[in-house]
Amino acid sequence: MPVASVRGVDINYEMLGERGPWVTLQPGGRRALAGVKSLGEKIAEAGCRVLVYDQRNCGASGVSLDGGNSVIFICAAAPGT
Question: What is the pLDDT of residues 2-12, one digit of tens each?
Fold first, then answer.
């Protein structure tokens, strides 16, 4: 699976579907992308492109225990904030 470096942590992700509007599915809690992949496949079959990924410290994504901001803030904040 592909990996992207996001704020210094390798994030494992998968893209489903080849055309249509983009949808991103994030697994809840500390679950890996497998928890939302089947839903993503159904959405892709309906005509969307879907991004599913492992959150930091989950699944095949990298681990970062820096004690700073929450994972939600890190994912949502603009670079440099």
Answer: 898 887 888 88
Q: Is the dihedral of CA 69, 72, 73, 77 positive or negative?
A: positive
Enter the pTM of the model: 0.75
Query: Beta partners for 29?
Result: none
Q: 33: which 2 tokens?
A: 């992308």
Q: Can you give 11-67 as a three-state secondary structure string? A: EEEEEECCCCCEEEECCCCCCCCHHHHHHHHHHHHCCCEEEEECCCCCCCCCCCCCC
Cβ 77 vs Cβ 69: under 8 Å: yes
